[in-house]
Every structure is written in C-alpha cells, then in structure tokens.
Design a protein that fits this description.
Layout: H1 2-20, H2 25-39, H3 41-56, H4 58-67, H5 72-85, H6 92-112, H7 114-117, H8 123-136, H9 145-153, E1 165-166, E2 169-170, H10 186-211, H11 219-240, H12 244-278
Antiparallel strand pairs: 1-2
Helix pairs in contact: 1-2, 1-6, 2-12, 3-12, 4-5, 8-9, 10-11, 10-12, 11-12
Length: 279
C-alpha cells in the first residue's frame, strides 16, 4: 500500500543516517525528522500564509454569511468568489492534513518494522526468526515481531542488530507492554507538554482575532481549533501502543513545528508590514 511504499523510501534515508553517525537509532531518527521537516518547509510556509490570509478574510466572509443566511446556495457561491478574488484555496488546509496523515502512518510502519523498511532484511530470514520466537513462546508473538527479533536474536546475527539505546531509553519498548517501567513515559510526556505549548500558541492567536470581531467565529477557525486538539490526542493514543521510536519522531517533529511557526509568523508579519508601508 501507499504507506508501505513511503516507509520503504524513508527506510533508505534512515539507514543511511544510522550508519553515517555511528549506528545510533535515536540520533538517526532526530536527523531524519529534521530533514523531513526541511523537505516539507515550502508546504508549511504556504499553509501558514494561507491560514493568515483566511483569518484576515473572516470579516468579509461573515458579512457574506449574514447577508445570504437565508440563501445557502448563493452564500457558498459568494464565498467561493471571495476565495477566487483573493487567490486563496479553501482546501489548502485539507491538503496539509492529508500529507501529515500520510507521513504519520508511513513513519509508524517504518519504526514498527525496522528490519523490513530500514535494514532491508530478506522476508524469508525475518519469517524464520519469527517462527523461532513463536515456538519459544508457545506460539505467542508480539504485534511488533521485528522489534522482538532484534531484541532476542541480534546477539547471534549482526545483520539484524539495531542500536536502539538513546540517552538511557530503549526506543524499542512499547509503553502499553512495559507499564511498570517509568522510563517509557518520558518521551510521550514531553510530547504532551510540547503539544500544550503548540495548542496555546494557536488558540491564543485565534482568541485575539475573535475578540477583535463581534461576529461569531468562522467554521474554518473552529475546525482548525478542533484539529489542534485532536492531532495530539490521536498521536499520544498511538504512541502508547507503538515503539518509543515513534514518540521520539513526534516529539522532535512537534518542537520543530513550533520553531517553524514562530519564525514563519515573524517573517510573514514583517512582510505584511513592509507591504502596508509601501502602500
């Protein structure tokens, strides 16, 4: 499927980084996340500009909604005309969300099956190890059997070894399977803290806009606000049942997104100020 295809491509980059920095999975994941954010930077800038422009148009949109509240067909037509005049796509936020979901699920595949997507180990070899572990465990095998293979069989086969020790944390551990180990909660908790900070940044700006406008907040603003809450909740839920490597990716990605938002907002604001001065 599409996620496996993308995970396979990501695997080449992660393996190259892993070997290039002395075989440390945690550092390789951090560098992988930084490179991925740089690649996605043009889309992020476009999304930020689009969000700012949409917020700036809220007054005009609310006028249209009030004027044509009894004629939904004409109201939608006028709103689309407004978007067209301002050279703005109403679906720009959707494209960004789709890309984010594609990447999230592809990285999930990547960290869940590192032997397949990162190490490119022959499927027959993986299957043999899987059957061995299953026989040793009375037919039981983890959902993340490739992680279990690394944990139990790497000592006898260097080819499948992946160093997942990162600052004393074992990135192969799954929080839901190691609930008595306090260390498995460190990265997810840091992710929650960074998400709260990110949400406050987003909702803080939205509140200021709403306070400066006596009309009801626009549906687009409400949707963006809901997404800012839903994404972290979904991520933490998945991170709880996935290897810690995924939580590390999300944590670093979140920190980079916050930094991007601060820098891009300053850049866009200063550009708008220059444009106004020229006018």
């Amino acid at each position: 499927n599409m996620f496996q295809f993308i995970a396979n491509i990501f695997g080449y980059l992660l393996e190259w980084l892993y070997n290039g920095i002395g075989q440390n999975y945690g550092i390789a994941l951090i560098l992988f996340t930084i490179i991925l954010r740089i690649i996605l930077l043009p889309l992020t800038i476009k999304q930020q500009k689009s969000m700012k422009k949409t917020t700036a148009l809220q007054g005009k949109m609310q006028e249209i909604q009030f004027k044509y509240k009894n004629n939904p067909e004409l109201m939608n037509k006028e709103i689309m005309e407004l978007y067209k005049r301002e050279n703005l796509s109403p679906f720009s936020g959707c494209i960004s969300s789709i890309v984010q979901i594609l990447i999230i699920l592809s990285v999930f595949y990547l960290v869940s099956r590192p032997l397949t997507y990162m190490k490119k180990i022959d499927p027959g070899i993986i299957e043999n190890y899987k059957n061995e572990i299953s026989a040793e465990n009375d037919g039981k095998i983890s959902n993340y059997y490739e992680i279990e293979i690394i944990q139990k069989k790497a000592a006898q086969d260097e080819n499948i070894k992946v160093n997942m020790d990162f600052l004393g944390l074992d990135l192969s551990k799954v929080p839901s399977q190691n609930m008595s180990d306090a260390t498995v909660y460190i990265i997810p908790l840091l992710y929650v803290v960074s998400s709260i900070f990110s949400i406050r940044m987003t909702t803080g700006k939205t509140k200021k806009k709403e306070e400066s406008n006596s009309s009801e907040p626009d549906m687009t603003q409400q949707m963006n606000k809901s997404m800012s809450y839903m994404m972290p909740i979904m991520a933490v839920s998945i991170a709880f049942v996935a290897p810690l490597g995924l939580a590390l990716y999300w944590l670093i990605s979140n920190i980079l997104m916050i930094l991007e938002r601060i820098v891009i907002n300053k850049y866009v604001d200063s550009k708008e100020e220059k444009t106004l001065c020229l006018k």
